[in-house]
Amino acid sequence: MGAPVIVDVSKLEPGQQIQVGWRKQPIFVIRHTKEAINNIESSLSKLADPKSESIDEPYRDINLTRSKSSEFTILVGVCTHLGCSPKFFPEVEPKSWDASWTGGYFCPCHGSMFDLVGRVFKGVPAPTNMKVPPHNFKGNILTIGEDEEMS
Ligand code: FES
């Protein structure tokens, strides 16, 4: 039960997200573009908890991505409101739900918004940021569900 999942991330293009399953939950693996990383703090004023202070954040203050990698973000792909799966909209363009959208996740169930690293916006139904699962990188090999350095 809950065996770790191994992903070779070398095939992901910048800007791409893939989904894998771990412990019956969707896990999102995102490879950010350089522009996305550079812009990651541009939506700061929209965020309810930019430093994930209200949740148990495994890799706080290591990378802007919230992960152990400066290029990839790993998220439990479950909306923290009532558990729908938020959709990935990486484009920087006006959206029907946000005219100043700079890329991130939108949950169609009740309209929650998260930035590209899963941080929740202010004033939406979801109460907290999306969770980051334990993970580890060895080169391009990502292991989700296990972090030798934490145990
Ligand atoms: S479940 Fe995502 S906004 Fe309600």
The fourth-level CATH homologous superfamily is: Rieske [2Fe-2S] iron-sulphur domain
Structural domain tally = 1
Kindly state the mean pLDDT as a whole number?
Answer: 95
CATH architecture assignment name: 3-layer Sandwich
Q: Flag low-confidence runs.
A: none
Instruction: List the ligand species.
Output: FE2/S2 (inorganic) cluster
Element-level helix/strand string: EEEHEEEEEE
SS content category: mainly beta
Write structural notes for this entry.
The protein is mainly beta and 151 residues long. The protein has a single domain, classed as Rieske [2Fe-2S] iron-sulphur domain (Rieske Iron-sulfur Protein), CATH 2.102.10. Helices cover 3% and strands 26% of the residues. The protein is built from 1 helix and 9 strands. The protein has a 3-stranded antiparallel sheet with strand order 1-9-8, with no helix packed on it. Strands 2-3-4 form a 3-stranded antiparallel sheet, with no helix packed on it. Strands 5-6-7 form a 3-stranded antiparallel sheet, with no helix packed on it. The longest helix is centred in the N-terminal third of the chain and has 5 residues. It binds FE2/S2 (inorganic) cluster (FES).
